[in-house]
Amino acid sequence: MRVRKFWIGALGLALAASITACGGKKDDLDAPDAGGGAAAAGSGPKVDAATAGNVEGVVAFDGVAPKNEPIKMNADPVCVKENTTPQQQETYMVADGKLANVFVYVKDGLGNYSYDAPAGAVTIDQKGCRYHPHVLALRIGQKLEIVNDDPTLHNIHALPKGNQEFNTGQPIQGMKTEHVFTAKEIMVPFKCDVHGWMNAYLAVMDHPYYAITGADGKFSLKGLPPGTYTIEAWHEKAGTQTAQVTIGAKETKEANFTFKAGATATD
Amino acid sequence: MLHRFAKFVAGCTVLLVLAGSLVTSTDSGLSVPDWPTTYGWNMFTFPPSKWVGGILYEHGHRLIASSVGFLTIVLAAWLWMSDTRRWMKWLGVGALGAVIAQGVLGGLTVMFFLPAPISTAHAGLAEIFFCMTVAIALFTSRGWIEGYRGRLVDDVPLRRLATAATILIYCQILIGATMRHTGAGLAIPDFPLMFGHLWPNHWDSKIAVHFAHRAGALLVALAVAVTASAVFARTRMSELRRPARLLIALVVVQITLGALTVLSRRDMWINSVHVVCGALVLTTSLVLTLRTWRVKFATQDVPLRREPAEVRLQPDTTTIRTVRFPVDQTNRTAR
What we know:
The structure holds two protein chains of two kinds. By secondary structure, chain A is α+β, with helices and mostly antiparallel strands.
C-alpha cells in the first residue's frame, strides 16, 4: 500500500512538473521580450544628431563568382506552377562586380548609447516558394512578421543558437504569424523543411547601425556618433571581413569590402 | 493464421523502418511542425493534396507507423487470446508497449526539434520493436513449436557466438543511428581511405562517431564470419544454415551500401536502404540466435534428440500446453 502511494505521488509530481515545464516553454515563446526590449532601448545617453556622422561603402566581389545551385521544385507542383523560369539559390548575387545580400554592421566601438525603440515590424514573405528577402535584420524586441503568400503550405523553422528555436506551420495562403527575438544573434538561419531549398538569414541587433547591400553592393550606416568603429561585412558563404573606421563630428567616411572567389564562411 | 499475421506485421515493420529512414535521409523530420496533429488537421484527415515536399516523407511515416501500431494491437490481442504460452502473451504486450513508446518518442523528437539523444533512442527502439515482431513470427512458426522436429542441438559455444554477434550488430546500429542524428554521416568524406590515410589524421566528435561506425562494421563482419563458420562446421540443420548464409549475404550488401552512402554523398535511397539492410542483418542474426536457444524452450510435447552426446537438456519451465495453430497432423505423425 505504501509503495502504491509512493508511485501515485511520484506520478502526480511528474505530471505537475511536466505541466509546469510545458507552460514555461509556451511563455518563453510568446513573451513580448521584457529583457530584450530594455536592451534594445539601452540605458546610456542618446546619440546627438547634431554631431552624428555616417559610414558608407560598397561591397565588391573579385573574380568569377561560383554558380548558384539550381533549384528543382518538383517536390511541390504548386511551387513549379508559381515559378515559370528556372530558379537558382541566392548564394552569390553578383552584378558588375558588386555583391548583394551582404549584411554590414557596426561590430564594435559603440558606447553605452540608448536608441529609440524600433518602429513597426520586419516582414519575411514566403512567395513563389522562396523567402523574401533572403537576408534581413531587425532589433531585439522588434516584431518579425512571417507571411505565407503561397497557395501551398510552408513551415518556417528558425535555427538560432542564442534565441529560442521555433518551427511554425503555415498551411493556408495569407497566414501571418509574429515572432520576437530576445538576444543579439548574427545570423539566425531559417529553413523550410517542406521545401528543402528555401533558406534565409536574419540578424538580431542591439543597435540600429546595420544595412544589407542591394544589387549595387552599396550600404550606408547613418547617424553614428563620432568615434572609432569596427565594421563587419557578413556573407553567407564568403564569410566575414572587418574594417576600422574613425569618424569625427558630422563626417562621412568610406569603408569598402571586397570578397574574393574561393573564400568560405568563417562564422 | 496467427503466424502469417505475425509475419505480415514484421513485413510492415520493414516498410516502417524504410519510411523512417527516408525521413532522416531527406531531412524532413520537421516538415510537419506539430504532433500528433498535422498542420492542425487530424492526422488521418490531412488532405493528400498537401502531401508535398518533406511532408510526404514525414506524414507518410506517421501514417505507416499508426497502421503498424494498429496491427500490433491486433497481434497482441490475438496472442493474448490464442496462445497459451504465458510469456508469449506478455511478449505481445511488450511489442505493443514498444510501439506506443516509439510513437511517443517520435512525437517528442518533433516537438523538441530533433535532439540527437531522442532521435537516436527513436531509431534504437525501432530496431527493438522490429526484433520483437520477428521474434513473435518465429515463436508462432510451426518449426519453433515443434522444436524443429527433434533435430535440436544444445551447442553452448555456438549459442554464445550467435548471441554475441547479435548484440554487436545492435551496438553497431546504435552507433550508426548516433552518426545519422548528429550529422556525422560524411564526417569522413572519403572511402575506403579516411582523409587520404588509413587512419584519420585529425579528430573531432563527429569524426570519432563516424570512425567508430566503420570500425564497428569490420567487427560485425568478423563476428558474422566466425558465427557462420561455426554454424557450417558444427551443424547440418538447415534452420541454422539458412539464416547463416543469408546473414553473410546481407553483411556483404550492407558494407557495400555503407561505402556507397559515403561515395554518393548520402544519396537518399542508398542511405535509407542501408538502414533497412542493417535492420535485416540484426533480425537475421536474431533468428539464428533464437534458434540456437530453442532447446532452452524445450516442451514436453516435443521430443528432443540428444546430439551430440554431451548435450544437456534443460527442464521445461515454459511449457506450451495448447497451441491453437493449424499444425499439419501428417507431419506430426511422421515425426
